[in-house]
Structure formats: structure tokens, C-alpha cells
């Protein structure tokens, strides 16, 4: 398949791509949108190629973009050139990057997780902010975690905002979604230590007895973890707050704990 051009906003393909900004359409189609050469290159290097690649008609040449285009065509994908104003409409950004892609969502069932594949996993319960989820995905990548498990009603990890905030980590990290009861049953069926930041019967996070595989869990940005979730954890740790704030941002707390776990169990 070769490159083609679309110039009209009313084109069915453009309408389809634009619809992927809406969660309802993403779920129905099983597809999502990612933007930017760096992010799409990370996806390619992780073994994921877009089914549809949109490129600005006027753009700076780049060897990575040439490689991405060639790989997409080789894999049977479609490459389309569009004016920059169409890219802006599709991505919802006034100054869009010169390339975006449509990807097939992948299986996010707990059964796809191999807990032995990494010493650290991050768990988010009812996280609602796509920026926080993106930060957690980047943290997971940075500490060599296996991935991020989303519990209960979390933000859609395939939303444009979450994918953008992940800076490509959505492609490098395993993702799983589950309800709390199902996750806890899955966790208890094998090895795994569940750790949460807490004030309930907690020990200092520095020097705590972490063990691999360690599942570091944080809760909702405003409510934190429900008490029964905390009490189900194998280890509850507390971090000192020396200023006026009484808590850390959820994604920041996950990062602090993840690096401490990394320092302990490597």
C-alpha cells in the first residue's frame, strides 16, 4: 500500500480518526490515537506499528519518520498526507506535531500479566487524572517495572491525554485493568507483596521490608485508598511530610515508593 492524500475535513477516514478522541468511540472501535514522532518511534521500537499513519503535507524531513512510514507500509498499514489544519482538528491541538497514528488497543486482562517478569509493579486505584497516569507509566518505565495495573474506575489509559502524558511509556509497559476483588484474588493466587502509603499501622518507607515481586499501590487523587484496601496490603508505609501539605500527589507518591523499592530489591 502506498501513501495517499486527503484534504477534506468531511472525509470518512478523517472523521473516524477524530472520533477516537472520544472514549465511547475508542471502546467501540478498539483503536486509539497517538501523536508525535518520538512517541510513535518508541511504539515502533516496542514492536507496535500504527494501522493508519497521518503525516503533515508540509513537514521537516527526518530519517525516523522515513523509517516509521516504511515500517507501517511493510506491515500493511495505511499512510496518508493531510494539511496541518486537519492534524490540528484530529488531535485537538492548535500546534499539532507533524505525525500521528491510529493503533489497535491490546488485551489488558490480568491474565496477560506475568508477575515474575519484573520485581516491581505499580498499581493505581480509581485514578482519574490522565496526567497522573502518564506520570506513573513513565515512572514504571524508569524503574524497570513490569507495568501498571489499573484498579476500579480509572482514567482510560488509551485517551489522547494519557497517551501523550506517558511520553511513549504506554507502549513499553504492560497494562492491566481489573476490579479490586478480582485483582486481590489474582494477587493472592501467587507470589507478590502489596504495598501502600498509609497512616494506618504504617512503618517508615525508608528501609521497610520490601520483597519482589512488589506491587506499589496508590489511590484516588482526592480520596486516597479506601480503608479496607489499605488493610488488605501486606505492608503499609508512611513518608515524612515536613511542610504544610498533608499528602503528596498520587503519581509522585508512587514514584518515591517505587525508587525506594528499587533501591531495596533492585
Strand adjacency order, main sheet: 8-7-6-11-9-12-10
CATH fold-level label of the largest domain: Alpha/beta knot
Oligomer: single chain
Number of separate domains = 2
Strand content: 15-25%
Describe this structure in words.
- This protein is an alpha/beta fold and 266 residues long.
- It folds into two domains: 4-104, 2-Layer Sandwich (60s Ribosomal Protein L30, Chain: A), CATH 3.30.1330; 110-265, Alpha/beta knot (3-Layer(aba) Sandwich), CATH 3.40.1280.
- It is built from eleven helices and twelve strands.
- It has helices at residues 12-19, 23-29, 37-45, 63-74, 84-91, 130-142, 160-165, 169-172, 180-188, 227-231, 250-265; strands at 4-5, 31-35, 52-56, 78-82, 99-104, 120-125, 147-151, 174-178, 193-197, 203-204, 214-218, 235-238.
- Strands 8-7-6-11-9-12-10 form a seven-stranded parallel beta sheet, sandwiched between helices. The chain has a five-stranded mixed beta sheet with strand order 1-4-3-5-2.
- β3, α4 and β4 (78-82) form a beta-alpha-beta unit.
- α3 crosses α4 (63-74).
- The N and C termini lie far apart (46 Å).
- 41% of the residues are buried.
- The model has no long low-confidence stretch (mean pLDDT 93).
Helices and strands in order, then pairings?
Layout lengths: L3 E2 L6 H8 L3 H7 L1 E5 L1 H9 L6 E5 L6 H12 L3 E5 L1 H8 L7 E6 L15 E6 L4 H13 L4 E5 L8 H6 L3 H4 L1 E5 L1 H9 L4 E5 L5 E2 L9 E5 L8 H5 L3 E4 L11 H16 L1
Helix pairs in contact: 1-5, 3-4, 6-11
Amino acid at each position: 500500500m502506498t501513501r495517499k492524500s486527503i484534504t477534506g475535513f468531511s472525509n470518512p477516514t478523517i472523521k473516524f480518526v477524530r472520533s477516537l478522541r472520544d472514549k465511547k468511540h475508542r471502546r467501540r472501535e478498539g483503536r486509539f490515537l497517538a501523536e508525535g514522532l518520538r512517541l510513535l518511534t518508541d511504539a515502533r521500537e516496542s514492536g507496535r506499528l500504527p494501522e493508519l499513519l497521518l503525516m503533515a503535507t508540509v513537514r521537516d524531513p527526518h530519517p525516523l519518520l522515513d523509517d516509521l512510514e516504511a515500517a507501517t507500509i511493510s506491515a500493511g498499514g495505511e499512510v496518508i498526507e493531510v494539511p496541518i489544519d486537519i492534524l490540528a482538528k484530529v488531535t485537538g491541538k492548535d500546534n499539532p506535531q507533524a505525525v500521528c497514528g491510529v493503533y489497535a488497543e491490546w488485551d489488558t486482562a490480568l491474565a496477560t500479566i506475568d508477575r515474575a517478569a519484573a520485581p516491581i509493579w505499580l498499581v493505581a486505584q480509581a485514578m482519574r487524572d490522565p496526567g497522573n497516569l502518564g506520570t506513573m507509566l513513565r515512572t514504571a518505565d524508569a524503574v524497570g517495572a513490569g507495568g501498571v495495573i489499573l484498579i476500579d474506575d480509572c482514567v482510560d489509559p488509551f485517551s489522547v491525554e494519557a497517551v501523550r502524558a506517558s511520553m511513549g511509556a504506554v507502549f513499553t509497559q504492560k497494562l492491566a485493568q481489573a476490579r479490586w476483588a478480582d485483582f486481590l484474588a489474582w494477587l493472592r493466587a501467587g507470589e507478590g507483596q502489596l504495598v501502600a502509603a498509609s497512616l494506618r499501622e504504617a512503618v517508615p518507607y525508608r528501609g521497610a521490608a520490601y520483597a519482589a515481586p512488589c506491587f506499589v499501590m496508590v489511590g484516588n487523587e482526592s480520596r486516597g485508598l479506601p480503608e479496607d484496601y489499605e488493610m488488605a496490603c501486606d505492608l503499609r508505609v508512611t513518608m515524612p511530610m515536613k511542610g504544610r501539605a498533608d499528602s503528596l500527589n498520587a503519581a509522585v507518591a508512587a514514584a518515591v515508593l517505587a525508587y525506594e523499592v528499587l533501591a531495596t530489591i533492585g
